[in-house]
Design a protein that fits this description.
Elements (H helix, E strand, L loop, with lengths): L12 H10 L3 H7 L21 E2 L22 H7 L2 H17 L4 E2 L23 H16 L4 E2 L17 E3 L2 H17 L5 E4 L3 E2 L2 E2 L7 H5 L7 E4 L27 H8 L5 H17 L18 H12 L1 E5 L13 E5 L1 H4 L19 H8 L5 E5 L8 E3 L5 E2 L8 E6 L5 E7 L3 E5 L9 E9 L4 E8 L2 E7 L2 E8 L8 H4 L3 E8 L4 E9 L8 E9 L5 H13 L3 E7 L20 H11 L3 E6 L14 E4 L7 H9 L31 E3 L8 H9 L18 E3 L3 E4 L6 E9 L5 E10 L11 E10 L4 E8 L5 E3 L3 E3 L2 E8 L7 E7 L1
Parallel strand pairs: 1-2, 2-3, 4-6, 4-27, 5-8, 10-11, 10-24, 24-25, 25-26
Antiparallel strand pairs: 6-7, 9-26, 12-23, 13-17, 14-15, 14-17, 16-23, 17-22, 18-21, 18-23, 19-20, 19-22, 28-30, 29-30, 30-33, 31-32, 31-36, 34-35, 36-37
Bound molecules: beta-D-glucopyranose (BGC).
Beta-D-glucopyranose binds next to loops.
Length: about 800
């Protein structure tokens, strides 16, 4: 072989990455460790390095702007995915996100959110999967695997002990080592060890006294025990010091200004941070760049598999996650041929909440409401009459796009003009929506004010409340008269309050149906904005009505219908980011509405449109209750599929559903003296409920794992077999579909350890699987229970030898089929 034909010796990729990192100057290295802007890292063209674009996440991919013209697929929120108990669905969900990311030029999705449902008051509960670490860990790993199979990075977040929102930047979560390992870290573990996540996001909070971005937990277990070789990205503004560079924190976001940059350069120069530490961080960032295909000379980690139908996956997830908790006398599914009049009731039936608020927000092209979904599926001769029944949405709502008109371009929407200091136009754009957000992109250089102009066509005669929501100096002109010229002040001082819940100023206008109201707002940009976030909302408040009359009208509608479908739910002021919930009540007079409708028509079906548990005092007085979560853009179509029996509700509760707030064993989300103490230890979720019940306390309304389909299953005696040396056990369970139609069984395996020398939960989930069986057919399902399911943490993973009970059932409080296994 000649020298020319001899292949180049293969230098392992890691060594090449390290050489490349070392070839950079210290300035170049440090410049890579803080974002170039709000959503991306710095490019270094000299070495063939492009920028890495990161984007929220976790239930859609927004991209680098909040621009409704660049729409995104909106998938159901994570609590719906949690309720699917399906790794297949989670993997497809992840693949669709990866596909969306590629379409939008995004290299890393900021998700999944895998904090646990510790308290149902947690504001971002909707964004997380479950109260159980095993269910969470499996789903999270499948999601990560799905995203990364498309060549896009996933960033499990928020590492760690970030289960609440109150004082989220400063709170110290005080968690003992055992619950930290067995619950909160366990939920993250498989996403790193099995799915090999390319990023992890550190959280805002402190854990046992040290803020996450400086915490040793980034080192152990994440990097050492779990072998994480990806990038630890901070939560946005979560790096608080140069000290974080001495921890395993790699990337500070957002940029370009942060706590690193020049300060970090100085710290390296005077020896407070070693150059090696910096080089290692750069290696990890280059490795991520190589994986996502923005580093020349390196093969990206994955190809581009075939296109998936994102809307179909959104609809499938909504169906598979919807949990039917009550179905008296088989009222569901409805038989379309037997219907002539259907009453559809509830504000959320018409204006569904399809996603939770906060950074998870994406801007889909459409949202299908339950009312639309039902109308499109019901036969044409069925009369569908809608009643709002009770007002739910509070404050200004975006104008419906069909009602606003751009007075300059003559097209639907809003005219936006960017103005310089002299008030002259720099540039303009035609926008479609009346809620506009600029976060790090889209405002041209030299802009000192932004003008919004629109003409609203009034849908119904009467007095309407319109206005503006924003933070800062703004002038609002309605029909040529200046009605407001002042500052709107954010009293919360929470990053993003402008986005999530801006202060508002409203005015009444009286108009005939079809009348025109012209609105012009001029927003003056603050001179020294540290975070480039501007949000302006023009809109109308949902009309007020006499509450008693609204309920009476809905009752009259229900009384004359064959079935009343009531959609109840929460609003944006309740489940979002930056704050926790105050209680678990449905807002407004919705409970009264359901009671009244159910009294008028026993064939009342309630669909609950919330991201997390709500109290349902009427639950035993209605015919059926379907928990639909925040079901994504196809929510209404999925609800219609389920109610009419086109699809079976596939969900099982990923979190215990309480009957009353006072019953909930773990509630606290509010720090005391800066600390949020996880005093319940390992007894979270159903573990806490079971312990409470054992002491004579209340049970939840519906237990963890519970949910009905349209058929029934009987489980037989399980056989427990060792899976191999130290690999846990395999549980084989005979399952029979004893009902009238094909359906999906979710088989759950719990362990318990009577007479243990160690404090333990009453029982704990160890494994699960699902199977679809035809009516009358039987099969055996295998559930794998890994060895770690038998272990507990006490200074290290320990195994208490002896006999464990293996409990097989359909939920955590089922009449179990039991077996025993001896662990050596
Ligand atoms: C949230 C993160 C999100 C980030 C970027 C933060 O405030 O906690 O979940 O990914 O903002 O939007």
């Amino acid at each position: 072989m000649t020298a020319a034909s001899r292949p180049e010796p293969q230098i392992p990729t890691d060594a090449r990455l390290r050489d490349l990192a070392r070839s950079l100057s210290l300035e170049q290295q440090v410049s890579l460790l803080t974002g170039a802007d709000v959503w991306s890292t710095r490019a270094i063209p000299e070495i063939g390095l492009g920028r890495i674009v990161l984007s929220d996440g976790p239930s859609g991919v927004r991209g680098e702007d909040f621009d409704e013209r660049h729409d995104s697929l909106s998938l159901p929120s994570s609590s719906a995915l949690g309720a699917s108990w399906s790794l297949d669905v989670a993997r497809r969900y992840g693949r669709v996100l990866g596909q969306e990311a590629r379409r939008k030029g995004v290299h890393a999705v900021l998700g999944p959110t895998i904090n646990l449902h510790r308290s149902p008051l947690g504001g971002r509960h909707f964004e997380a999967f479950s109260e159980d670490p095993v269910l969470t860990a499996r789903l999270a790993a499948a999601y990560v695997d799905g995203v990364q199979s498309m060549g896009v990075g996933a960033a499990p977040k928020h590492y760690i002990a970030n289960e609440a929102e109150t004082d989220r930047f400063t709170v110290d979560s005080v968690v003992a080592e055992r619950p930290l390992r067995e619950l909160y870290l366990a939920a993250f573990e498989e996403a790193v060890t099995e799915a090999k996540a390319w990023l992890v996001m550190s959280s805002y909070n402190s854990i046992n006294g040290t803020t996450a971005s400086e915490n040793k937990l980034l080192e152990t277990p994440l990097s050492t025990d779990w072998g994480f070789d990806g990038v630890v990205v901070s939560d946005w503004t979560g790096v608080r010091s140069v000290e974080a560079a001495n921890a395993h924190q790699d990337l500070e976001m957002p940029g370009p200004v942060g706590h690193w940059g020049a300060a970090l350069l100085a710290a390296v120069e005077d020896g407070r941070v070693s150059r090696d530490k910096i080089t290692e961080k750069v290696v990890r960032i280059l490795r991520l760049a190589a994986r996502v295909g923005v580093l020349d000379g390196f093969e990206p980690a994955a190809g581009h598999p075939d296109a998936l139908d994102g809307a179909a996956v959104a609809r499938e997830t909504a169906v598979r996650g919807a949990v039917l908790v009550r179905n008296e006398n088989g009222i569901l599914p409805l038989e379309p041929a037997a219907l002539s009049r259907v009453a559809v009731i509830g504000h959320n039936a018409e204006q569904a909440r399809t996603q939770g608020g906060g950074s998870a927000t994406v801007l889909p092209r459409h949202n299908i409401s339950p009312l639309e979904g039902l109308r499109s599926v019901l036969p044409a001769d069925v009369v569908v009459r809608y009643s709002r029944g009770a007002k739910v949405a509070e404050g200004l709502q975006e104008f419906p796009r069909g009602e606003i008109h751009n007075p300059v371009s003559g097209v639907p929407g809003i005219r936006v003009t960017f103005l310089d200091a002299a008030g002259a136009g720099i540039s303009g754009e035609d926008r479609l929506a009346s809620r506009l957000i600029w976060f790090g992109a889209g405002i041209p250089e030299g802009t000192s004010a932004i003008r919004l102009e629109t003409v609203w066509t009034v849908p119904a005669a009467g007095v309407h409340t319109v206005g503006i929501g924003t933070v800062g100096q703004v002038r609002l002109t309605i029909d040529g008269a200046d009605v407001f010229d002042d500052e709107l002040i954010d009293s919360t001082n929470v990053l993003g309050a402008a986005l999530f819940a801006p202060p508002q100023k409203t005015f009444n206008v009286t108009a005939a149906a079809g009348g025109k109201v012209s609105l012009t707002a001029v927003y003056r940009l603050p001179p020294n904005q540290t975070i480039p976030l501007t949000a302006i909302l023009l809109g109308e408040e949902a009309a007020a009505a006499d509450p008693a009359a609204e309920i009476a009208e809905a009752v009259e509608n229900a009384r004359s219908a064959d079935v009343a479908i009531v959609v109840v739910g929460t609003n944006a002021a309740i489940e979002s980011e930056g704050f926790d919930r105050e209680n678990l009540d449905l807002p407004g007079r919705q409970n009264e509405l359901v009671e009244a409708v159910a009294a008028a028509n026993p064939r009342t079906v309630v669909v609950v449109n919330s991201g997390s548990p709500v109290i349902m005092p009427w639950r035993e007085k209605v015919g059926a209750v379907l928990l639909g979560w925040f079901g994504g853009q196809e929510f209404g179509a999925a609800v219609a599929d389920i109610l009419l029996g086109i699809a079976e509700p596939g969900g099982r509760l990923p979190t215990s559903w309480p009957a009353a707030l006072a019953d909930v064993p773990v509630l606290n989300t509010t720090p005391v003296d800066g600390q949020l103490v996880y005093g319940e230890g390992i007894h979270v979720g159903y573990r806490a409920w079971l312990r409470q019940q054992a002491a004579g306390g209340s049970a939840p309304a519906y237990p963890f794992g519970f949910g009905q389909g349209y058929t029934s299953f009987v489980l037989g005696q399980p056989a427990v077999l060792p899976s191999g040396q130290g690999a846990g056990v395999s549980v084989s369970v005979p399952v029979t579909n004893t009902g009238p139609r094909a359906g999906r069984a979710v088989v759950q395996v719990y362990l318990s350890r009577p007479d243990s020398a160690v404090e333990r939960p009453v029982r704990w989930l160890a494994g699960f699987t699902d199977a679809v069986l035809d009516a009358g057919s039987s099969g055996n399902v295998e559930v794998q229970v890994p060895a770690c399911a038998f272990a507990h943490y006490d200074g290290g993973w320990q195994q208490e030898p002896g006999v464990f009970k293996v409990l097989v059932g359909r939920h955590v409080e089922d009449d179990f089929q039991a077996a025993e296994v001896e662990i050596g």
